[in-house]
Write a structure and sequence with these properties.
five-stranded mixed β-sheet, 7 strands, 32% helix
């Protein structure tokens, strides 16, 4: 995304191993001058008064318990400025029939994360609105064989 906007700065918040991988990727695509990191558990990060235009939670919500996911969305909502967006690409239970790869991806979440689970759309929408976000929109990512989808929500200006 930062390639499309030469003014964009990326701030990655994650644990050490993920930060190192992200830093390596940023360097490999010549973004290191616009790439900052905060080494912290995203569920417990203190961003102070910092606000962002866009907060992306890549495949994080399904990895955590309901309370942890709600806390993470609350932090994201607080970190995004008025008119900004929170984007959460993840696995969601939609109304349609699932294929084998999507079912296996959901099963992996349930087996690999202690309290994580794949949530359905109404439950996910409620989590976003409870966090103070509006205009919650959902779309499937057509290129994903595992059934990834994306929720985009806005913080009122």
């Amino acid at each position: 995304m930062a390639h499309r906007d030469a003014e964009a700065t990326v701030v990655a918040v994650d644990l050490r191993s993920q930060i190192e991988a992200a830093r390596t990727m940023a360097e490999s695509i010549d973004l290191s001058d616009r790439f900052k990191t905060i080494e912290s558990d995203p569920r417990q990060v203190d961003l102070g008064d910092a606000t962002f235009d866009l907060v992306v939670l890549p495949q994080l919500l399904s990895s955590f318990s309901d309370d942890e996911a709600a806390d993470l969305l609350s932090i994201a909502s607080s970190a995004v400025g008025g008119g900004g967006r929170v984007v959460a690409p993840d696995l969601y239970v939609g109304p349609g029939k699932t294929g084998l790869k999507e079912t296996l991806a959901r099963l992996t979440v349930h087996l690999a994360t202690p309290a994580g689970r794949v949530r359905d759309l109404p439950e996910s929408q409620l989590m976003f609105t409870t966090a103070g976000l509006t205009s919650v929109q959902f779309t499937y990512l057509a290129a994903s064989e595992a059934g990834l989808a994306m929720i985009v929500a806005e913080k009122k200006a």
